Amino acid sequence: PHEEIQLVVEAIEADYNQAVVALHGVSFTVRRGEIRALLGSNGAGKSTTLKAVANLLPAERGRVTAGAIRFEGHNVRATSTGDLVRLGLVQVLEGRHVFRSLTVEDNLVTGAIGRGSGRADIARDLDRVYGWFPRLAEKRRAPAGLTSGGEQQMLAIGRALMARPRLIVLDEPSMGLAPLVVRDIFRTLKQLNTQEQLSILVAEQNSTVALTYADTATVLENGVVVLEGTAAELRNREDIKAFYLGEG
Ligand code: ATP
User: Fold this and answer.
1) Atom of ligand 1 lying closest to residue 205 CA
2) Whose CA is nearest to atom 27 of ligand 1?
3) How many Å apart are CA 20 and CA 140, to the nearest integer?
4) Ligand 1 contact, 41 CB (< 6 A)
5) CA spacing 20 to 30 A to 214: which of 28, 37, 112, 238?
6) Predicted complex ipTM exceeds 0.95
7) Per residue of the chain (248 residues), what is the pLDDT tens digit?
8) Are 243 and 219 in contact (CB under 8 A)?
9) From the CB of 22, is ligand 1 less than 6 Å away?
10) Spatial separation of the C-alpha atoms in residues 91 and 57, rounded to whole Å
């Protein structure tokens, strides 16, 4: 089952406002049970790629102009974001986007909307999310806007889990968070990956942490794939990290 390819991104090109070309032919795959990191500096095209995968570009006057994206055999370019969620492809956007005035628990419940489950199902899934993120259980009655940045990131991930994803797509989960919080979040993602066979596609500027937890990585620069390999291969190439990722 590990060899089964779940997501195929094939030579996609994308632009915004029919003007700014952001992707010039990006290809990679995600196998079932794999964690793939999408690396690259600011503006390399990571977010655009993730939005293309979730069919979210039209909402930003962006579009995929060429290439193919298939999730478990479905043509992503012809499938709405909501339908993709129901098929098991769920994204966690950059900046977390929690509903600040809703409680932590009500935020989680919104993740189950569209799934058509009953109360008992939702209660079971809430318990499951609280098991992964005990901090959220402690804060279940608090307005999300009053929780810390790390808790909001956990909440965004927890809400995605409520949709019962088979592939989760995350944009810069480490952004603005302290190193220990980042480590906690990545450890939990890794456990979800191994214990629930959850596949993960994660964009990160923090290549060090991403390469610690990922199986494979794709490096983008100016909308082009400049490098790809196993995380172990890339971890050992300090020269490459310095050159493409701006880290020494
Ligand atoms: P970041 O970490 O800053 O999000 P990134 O690697 O995710 O960087 P993208 O956000 O995908 O990069 O940006 C790729 C290119 O597309 C950049 O040239 C950027 O300026 C452009 N771009 C991104 N979003 C928009 C938008 N909504 N409208 C117009 N151009 C955009």
Assistant:
1) 2
2) 60
3) 42
4) no
5) 112
6) no
7) 456 999 999 999 999 999 999 999 999 999 999 999 999 988 999 999 999 999 999 999 999 999 999 999 999 999 999 999 999 999 998 766 889 999 999 999 999 887 777 888 899 999 999 999 999 999 999 999 999 999 999 999 999 999 999 999 999 999 999 999 999 999 999 999 999 999 999 999 999 999 999 999 999 999 999 999 999 999 887 767 666 666 53
8) no
9) yes
10) 13
